[in-house]
Amino acid sequence: MKSALPRILIVFLLCSHVASGADETLPMVDGWPGLLILSGGSAVPAEAAAALKDAIKTGGSLVLITEAASDPSTVAKSVKWLKEHELSDYVTINSALSDSERRTKTIQAIDAASAVWIGGGQQAKLAKSFDDGSVEAALQKLLLRGGTVGGTSAGAAIMSKVMIASGANEPTLTSGWDMLPGAIVDQHFGQRNRMTRLQTAVEQHPECFGMGIDEQTAVFVKGRNIRVVGQGSVSLLLAKSEDRDREVQQLHAGDSADLTQLRRASRRRVSRIETGVPHNGNNAANSGALVIVGGGPMSDDIAERFVELAGSRDAHIVVLPTAVARDEATQQPPGFLKNAKVKSVTVLNQRGPEEVVTDEFKSALKSATGIWFGGGRQWNFVDAYEGTEALELFRDVLRRGGVIGGSSAGATIQGEFLVRGHPLGNTVMMAEGYERGFAFFPGTAIDQHFSQRERQPDLLPVVRRHPNILGIGIDESTAIVVTGTKVDVIGQHSAHFVSGQQLKNLPSDQPLPTTAKEAAKLYVSVKTGETFDLESIYR
User: Fold this and answer.
1) Which domain holds residue 508?
2) Are strands 113-118 and 61-65 parallel, antiparallel or unpaired?
3) Given 215, 416, 435, 476, which residue is catalytic?
4) Of 2, 106, 313, 512, whose CB is crowded by the most CB atoms within 10 A?
């Protein structure tokens, strides 16, 4: 574990400024392996005590940190809460020790622990007590090895690198602990009317999102999942940007959010990258070819066309199963490629900047004449490859005259605007932070399973909001094959196209159709077997 810690601490530079136009890989997209608990103060939800009990069942002690307390009564509250929940067997450090001795003893206790609870008081006092980073590092190590770290009131506020130390509407900001990536945490939120102060803090650090936690409420963060328990609510804030208003999302008990999506949304707001504006040219495959499949069973003519474009018998095809979680990804190629009589089919499950630079990954792509993006959830592709060397390796295949194909999620990722990208579900068409595809097909937003799932109404708000984007809906067992501006529709059904030009005659305040039948009237539908030029649809 010692060898892993320095790397994690280096990349875990949270709330760091993202330069204008930068497209950086988000560090540590999967969060901590352990459980982080942040309680908003007053009565701590019983679920927090239950989580501490679970953590110490398998061995390791519970450590109570009380340095935030300014008087004995505050310490007594933490002790009473632990005892009420049958957590009397805890370790605490003698406050009479010198600063250096107390730090040393605290670190030793954390190293032997499976859970740590940080009591309330004053977060500035707590930060000053352990201001050399050693206790912070020990807590991070505990989370890395799957342990539990929790705190209430001041013990929650200190969990964010940008820490609100004090103040009412004009907060005093200082440095806290790097435990909750990309956040600014505030507590006693609704009860003390702290919305303005958290909004002010987020406006000063727009690369962070705000998290305001009510009393009698707690947030459980494990990996990238944020879950709310207790009697109150949790407010998530995003700063105002050039193209977005300030945003507040409220969660109640049982609600969830995705930590990585919030971090990505915050970074996007300071990047000044307009997601709805094409950045990669006109609607054309400028080199090579694209085979974009709407999901469902693969028809023989689609499979044959992909293999033909990859070089037929001389094809070297790379399969990317990374639209699903690593432990669910198969090392077997899809059925239509298993029996293909081609030179080679290689499955690559590497993901992230460290893995895509391996010789196996790079050499396979450098010799590839075709790439197949598998099905699953398209946001997994973004987490796997965005900001890495992989994207240029993919584009090199097209530059060499090869083909990129994919079905379902592997279709949507090929567009420039990514729809249905929210990690918590595929019904959100515009998920901030996950609105950028790989733009193999520039200036487009691609949806799949289109007519079969009656998705015609879903693309219309995307195109209305981003009129320079061409919306494309592809039916199951159907593909569009794109070479330059030429499009062939093959397979069993149709492809459907809607542009800002087609919607411009609708008043902006007129509601868009909500039924598939009515929405379908706004599309140009092209049947299988037909060929057309994109300029005839889009211009």
Assistant:
1) 285-538
2) parallel
3) 215
4) 106
